[in-house]
Amino acid sequence: MSFKDQPTDTISSIRFAKGSNTVFATIGWDCFIRVYDIEKSALIASKEVHAPLLTIDFFNENTMLVGGVDKTILAFNYESERFFSLNTLPAVIKSICVCQEEGIVAVGCWNETLYFLDFSDPGKIVKEMELPAKVFDMSYNDGNLVIALSDKSMALYTFADELLALRKTLLKSQIRCADISSDGSLAFGSVQGRVLYSHVEEATSLALSFAFRAHKSKNSVFPVNSVCFSHKNPTSVITAGSDGKVISWCTQSRSRIDKLYINSSKQNISSVRLSDDDKHLVIGVGPVYQTENPSSFVELVVIDVDETSLLPK
């Protein structure tokens, strides 16, 4: 499935609305928030801002928080079309995670700082933590916040213990993306095509982690731009790369399950997101960095995912 109303520049991030498997939002470098409905096959809301956007997460069923280059956290209700600024931080905002169960909105920035905002008043900063490097991506699930950093390391914040653990990773190149599953599995994608798998309980022991080459050809390796876990099968992970492929993997057998999508023109895949029921995968096609397969082609695609494509082997 494709849409008539398409983004016009790199799609930075995709998120499904809370409680919905068919309504999702995209943000990107064209300075637009767009909300789509898969059942209607249509764009149902949009809002232009004055600077490129890098991150999005839904605050509730109809309101999302976004941030990016202009360092400002913005809120947009796609039903009422209400739009307002919450706070301006000292640096570029790279990742926002709504941790509703914790009463926190986590914001990671390029000034090597993690900010916690009050969920009941998202404009209010309640905690700041210094990090050893810039935040490149974050993901939250079940009391754990995983943070991918620009120095190839990761941080794991456990809300129950209020503990921030810093760990080096097995990856020898820059981390570009991260995700955490419902069972505490961790996945990180790197610019040299490798994916690192670990677990929140194993993060203190790198011996229990492993890395594998996910996106490569005979003579080339391609950056992994996006990773996401299956919601029903948390040991299955999806990776998307600059080779134009989206692939599902079984972390138990350490093998490929299926090729979910292959772009016929080998265009970069900048972002992917799976619906909570594992039935729909939204794919952002287009340039990531102009030094990698440069192209002005941008497309938003939705595919239906067969259950067998995510079943562990």
Describe the structure.
With 313 residues, the chain is mostly beta strands. 0% of the residues lie in helices and 54% in strands. The strands form seven sheets. It has a four-stranded antiparallel beta sheet with strand order 1-2-3-4, with no helix packed on it. A hairpin with a 2-residue loop joins strand 11 and strand 12. The protein is globular. The two termini are 28 Å apart. The model has no long low-confidence stretch (mean pLDDT 93).
List keywords for this structure.
globular; 54% strand; 313 residues; 4-stranded antiparallel β-sheet; 27 strands
Count of beta strands: 27
Shape: globular
Alpha-carbon distance between the two ends: 28 Å
**Major sheet attributes:** 4 strands, antiparallel
Q: Would you identify the regions where 5 or more consecutive residues have pLDDT less than 50?
A: none
What is the beta-strand fraction? Answer: over 45%
Give me the strand/helix succession: EEEEEEEEEEEEEEEEEEEEEEEEEEE
In order across it, which strands form the biggest sheet?
A: 1-2-3-4
Structural class: mainly beta
Enumerate how many helices there are, as a single number.
Answer: 0
Mean pLDDT: 93
Helix content: under 10%
Radius of gyration: 18 Å
